[in-house]
Amino acid sequence: MTFRVRPVDRGRVGSDRSRRTLYMNVGFGLAVAIAVLILIAVGATTWYGEHLAAAATINGQTITKDQFADRAGVEAFRLEQQANRIQSEVAAGRLTQAQADDKAQSINNQLDSSTFTSSVLEKVIDSQIQAKLAAQMGVSVTDQQIDQKIAEDKTRKEERHVLLIAIEPTIDSGKTAPTDVEKADAKKAADDALAQIKGGKAFADVAKAVSTDASKSAGGDIGWLDQDATEDKGWLDAVFKLDVNGVTDVILGTDGTYRIGKVTEIAPAEVDPAWDQKLANAKISQASYRAALASEALRQALEDKIVADDSAPGPQREVEEIHIAAPSGPLGEKAIKVRHILYTPNHDPSNASKVPDSDPTWSVAQIAAQKAYETVKADPSKFDSIARSESDEQSARGPDGTGGKLPYFDENSEASGLDPAFAAAILADGLQPGQILPPFKSAFGWHVVQVMYRPPDTAEMAKLKSEAEAGTKFEDLVRDFSEGPKSGAGGGLGWVAKGQLDDRLTNAIMAAPVNGYSDVVNVPNDGVYLFKVLGEKTAAPDADQLATIKSSAFNHWYAPQKDAFTITRDLVPSSSG
Predict the structure, then answer these.
(1) E strand or H helix at 557
(2) Could you tell me what percent of the chain has a pLDDT over 90?
(3) 32, 90, 288, 554: least surrounded by Cβ within 10 Å?
């Protein structure tokens, strides 16, 4: 019923020679796999050359098979160099098995033939579109900027062996966030730890005593990091300003955790002196390689401009949102959306099918479901609050949960694993929007279900807009229909500045009247949106808004720009659009 993300194992580097031998074998396997990929790419290009006139078209302009082959060769070469660097890092003792495996998996994912072809083709398409957009905007790159991009590609980044003390505030049972007192206690513990270190106590001993990070048992050793590591950025920046054996101040992370770092070794950045010879050996021309890196430099220049423009003071709107997520695939004739409240034996859906029908916990679940049914039958507005507080589907619960809303199901869903009893109930003929079904039993428990609506989503959202304009409270519509992350708290997004959202959404928000509603916006592969505008102001983006703008503004700008082009993808026919 739920999916959980496994925590990342940052690992630590030890001196086990047998492990290093294993890592070397992993790296060698990658290099062999990439060599095979290059042969496959060459063979595929030959086949396409015999059968297809173009790799793709953009507004009728052809991307030739030779353009694709040139870029494919460059990208395969770069993957090969990544594999070689994994081998070098393992040999130097700067990668653990977990880290090596993680990097190897990332490369292997890119080696899948369909993934590689579509990825390279998209790079070529993006290069041409971005060149057109850059010319329109007066954006260009110099030879020096391209040279810098090439230098970065040739260089292994500086790495640092780091120790960490992290102190996360405790949180009272049943609460989702620490109190001010708990935050102050964590800050004091971190300050005390730093004082002990400055007083001469070994960093590792202090880490073992007070750190809340998984690395505490190893004295805070989190291995080797470069500046692309996924650690807290403020703390990582501080770490990379230290000399060997330097210790940071106490750094408060964006996640509320207090951190102290120490650098024990530094491996300086290193340029590969044989890079150009390796290019020649791989039969990659300098012109093809430089063109690929030039396109990346131009993309960066475009991103820099978009981020700079969106970071300046400008209009902002305070909004609430209704979002209906796009279907994951084509829908059948009987497609329907419902929401449900689940009551299971022992509050454990994953093991409900193992509980005998005669077990009294089934009756307890049935009684609870019947009570909920009678309540929501008398007052449907209570459905959401009951789902968030009582449902045994954990993803439904709390203000950040779904409220029991489910994706589309249709006549094909049972074949894809939908419980047969659930399918029979929700796909029955004659069901109407708003209808609440009497409790029924599935392998997971007893369900109380309300029919929501049938496709298309744009028609449903237009209906919701009409209801809002006619006087229905927007927060009630959010509660009962929105699938956005704030659906359990009125749909409030706060103040929205340009660059925070897809430009299609931002443009609709800025065009709407204050105290009114936006147009319905359909973002392909994302979903349908409707906004209520509560207020407006002119202001510079705050720190949180700036962080979003820096990480996402380019993609929010570029996605609708790209969608405006007519693109065919002859190497990947099913992806044409």
Answers:
(1) helix 543-563
(2) 81
(3) 32
